[in-house]
Write the structure tokens for this entry.
Amino acid sequence: MKIVDLRSDTITLPTREMMEAVQEAELGDDVFGEDPTMNKLEKMAASRMGKEKALFVTSGTQGNVVSMLTHTHHGDEVIMEAQSHVFLYEVGAMAALGGLMAHPVPGHNGVLRPEDVETAIRGENIHFPKTQLLCVENTHNNAGGIAVTPQEMKALAAVVKPRGIRMHLDGARVFNAAIALNTDVKNLTKEADSVMFCLSKGLSAPVGSMVCGSEAYIERARKVRKMLGGGMRQAGILAACGIVALEKMVDRLREDHANARALAEGLAEMKGISIDMEKVQTNILVFDVSGLGGSQKVVSELEKKGVRCLPRDETHIRMVTNRMVSAEDIDRALEKIREVLL
Ligand SMILES: *Cc1c(COP(=O)(O)O)cnc(C)c1O
């Protein structure tokens, strides 16, 4: 049975071109700064994000924690959206490893309102922790792949910058946002002091994410990464795949977006499914199946028919289009979903 796997874009396998690049990669000890392939990837990533320097990290989670630890001291407070990845899905790393206090603020469709951030910031008072960092997620995963616009980034920066608060962009899927907004990715990273993006999601590299920022920032981040055990030796093996990901896999993300839209249009016509088309902006779909007996039941039924997806909560299912899923697979998935609804 052909499986249509819509659980996540993290299931994407490395391309043949990546495997060939691994064979050819020039290698060295990256902790000594001597891996030419890694040096090339870090240069490319920094330039794409409009930052001075970049650092390869093992995962998006490591990239976010390295970024947060580099910006803060123990006891500082970090503001983030209440449904964000850094707050919900990173094993409490900021508290466990950084001694940081999370200050979650609910956004609107995943986007923080500047006035709510302003209210959340702690003033000078002997009782208060120091608000040191704002984390912004783009695209917002839990909200359904919503793209935060350059204007929204600018409005948030205008609130935090004058108060000396830093801004970190969790841009795991920031290229998806840039494509959806039809803008250069630099317009989304400009306001951020640091950016993390994933090579291992839609971009299809097997392993790795990048942290980008100023030269001084990345120098400190490199040391934090080493402390967390993330100093790697002949990491050019991984960087070779990352280079192909950046050169060849960014533009094709629009295919994932087109497939997500087609899938959403099909779902919108089905009885018992409720989906907000305005929120289908990139490659993530979140839809309500409360009319069908809840998400877990529907996910199990679909699994039996070869369509894989994940429940988001008791009433919502998440589907993520990716390179392993073709336009024909989307038609097939829709057919199977219709069968389950019968
Ligand atoms: C996937 C993801 C991460 C973490 O990446 P991993 O490589 O899975 O650790 C961080 N932030 C967001 C928004 C993500 O979607």
About this structure: The longest strand covers residues 131-137. The two ends are 21 Å apart (CA to CA). The chain has two domains: 12-248, 252-341. The chain has a mean pLDDT of 97.
